Amino acid sequence: MQDLFSSLEYATGTVAGVDEVGRGPLCGDVVTAAVILDPNKPIEGLADSKKLTDKRRDVLYDEIIEKALCFHIARASVSEIDELNILHATMLAMVRAVDGLSIKPAHVYVDGNRLPTWGYSSEAVVKGDSKVAEISAASILAKVTRDREMIELSQQYPEYGFESHKGYPSKAHLEAIKTHGLIKDIYRASYGPVKKILAEQQSA
Question: In this predicted structure, what is the pLDDT of residue 2?
Answer without folding.
Answer: 38
